[in-house]
Every structure is written in structure tokens, then in C-alpha cells.
Amino acid sequence: MSSHGGADRAAERTDGARVIPLRPDLVPPDEPAPSAPGSELERRLAEALAFLRRRLTGDYEVDEFGFDPDLTESVLLPPLRPLYEKWFRVETIGLHHVPSEGGALVVANHSGTLPLDALMTAVAVHDDHPARRHLRMLGADLVFRLPVIGALARKAGHTLACNPDAERLLRAGELVGVWPEGFKGIGKPFRDRYKLQRFGRGGFVSAALRTGVPIVPCSIVGAEEIYPKIGDIRPLARLLGLPYFPVTPLFPWFGPLGAIPLPSKWTIEFGEPIPTTGYDEGAADDPMLVFNLTDQVRETIQQTLYRLLSQRDNAFLG
């Protein structure tokens, strides 16, 4: 018999079965219980029902621009995440340069035939930034004239690319995104990839100067390869009221399948903010100052693109 008496003896259950105690060193560490097979589905269903309840009861807010954060987070962002995470495998650099609060202007290069680069930048700022901020994008008037697309853009918080709207958003402490190349950027031929087009008249710099917010240069590598534009059917573009009708190696030859973007590997780098404070009153109306700051932002993005491209081994691997 053991010297510890009953402490080392097998315990007996009331039904007579013997219980053999485990040695402490053989007890496995606590592990989280595996998720039940239906738990993820149940969670999503619960979220969907909660969303519908909020819509039916009116328990959501919309700002003066039509921005609906609840709809954006529950309906508009989720379909973009598979593209962001699995298809383009977006890598973000320098997100700490994006302020966690207060107004700031993100200025990025534009490319890719369709403006998926703007959408992926919005996902990056919301999902990968600790503050999970919404990027309020400034878009061309064509975007807001399109059926369904225009209404959804308003719901997602985007507005027309004009200085009054930009300044109102910046003064309200919003994070605003602008792609100054416009259609010249996304519609340029593939042979001109990663060569920045003109940045317009620098209206975005004037808006930043008037509101005193920092300008965050943003460089996007990978979007140029999703729809390599090798031609333009201009008569059809004029007929449809579009800036161009692209011809790519797959579109329009393969119909709807040709509209699937190629799975290039993306990198989005946010550069060090360029301050706009400390200038004399009326600086926003000084054309030379506006031109110099615009050129500084453009050159910063261009040089970053060259650096990122020199570090990339393959457009589709990684």
C-alpha cells in the first residue's frame, strides 16, 4: 500500500466503476475547443439577420453625403475581401503613415483599365489599419451617372472630385482619397505602365492647403497587369459615352470571362505624410506653390513605384 494512503488509490464512483487519475505531467495543455462545423455559418446568418433588423427598424445613420457605414461594412466591403486577400494578395507597407484620426488626403497613382486600385486601397485602409478608417474617395462625374454604381458609390461615402466637397470632408476630419491621373491613368496603354500621367491642376493640393491636412502619397504596384490595355475601340466608346472601350488580350474576345482580372500580386505603399501647415494665408491661391507641391507628391509616388518595381521578381508570383 502506498504511504499516501487513499490519495494514490483509484477513486471509486458511486456506480462502482474505478476512476484512474492521470499523472499531472501527462495532462494535455488546455486547447481551444474546435469550432463546430456550422458555427461560422451560424455567425454569418446571425450577422445577416442583425443587419436586416437594423435596416427594417431604421437603426443606422447616413451623413450629408449619403455615406452609410452600416451598409458599407455589411454589404459593400465583404465581396471585395476575396479579391484583396486571395486574388491580388495585397501587401501593404507604411500604413502607420496614415493618421488614425483627423483629416488627411491620400493621393495615389491610377491604373488598370477599371478602377479596382481605388477599391483595394479602401479595403487596405479599413481592414489593415488599426483605426479601421473609411476612405472617402473623390470620383469622376461618370461614376455617379452610372445606374446602380453611382448610388452604391454614394452609399460607400464617395463624392464628386471637386474642391468644395473635398474641403468639407477634410474639415470634418475624414480620410479622403484622390487619384489625380483620372481616366488618363486607368486608360493608358499597357506600354506606358507605371509612368505617371499629369496630375491635373493641383486642385487636391489647394484643398489640403485650405484645410491644413497632411498629404499621404500612395504608390500601387500590381494594378497595371490586371487588364493589359492593348487597344481602344473609340467609335464604340463614343457611342456608349465612355472615355475608352478597352481591348485586352482576353477582352472582348472571351466575352464575360475576359472581364475577369488577371491575378497579379499587389503592393500598396503609403509614404511619409507631406505637411501643408506653416504656409502664409492665401497659400492655396499661389499657383507656383500649388504646382511645386503637386510636383513633389507626383515625384514621390513615381520614385516609389520605380523602387517597388525593382524589388519585384514577377508580376504574378509572390
From TrEMBL:
Coiled coil: none annotated. Residues 1-16 have a biased composition (Basic and acidic residues). GO terms for cellular component: membrane. Signal peptide: none annotated. InterPro entries: P_lipid/glycerol_AcTrfase_prd (IPR016676), Plipid/glycerol_acylTrfase (IPR002123). Residues 104-223 form the Phospholipid/glycerol acyltransferase domain. One of its GO terms (molecular function) is acyltransferase activity. Keywords: Acyltransferase, Transferase. It comes from the Bacteria. Residues 1-41 are annotated as: Disordered. Residues 26-35 have a biased composition (Pro residues). This is 1-acyl-sn-glycerol-3-phosphate acyltransferase. It comes from Streptoalloteichus hindustanus.
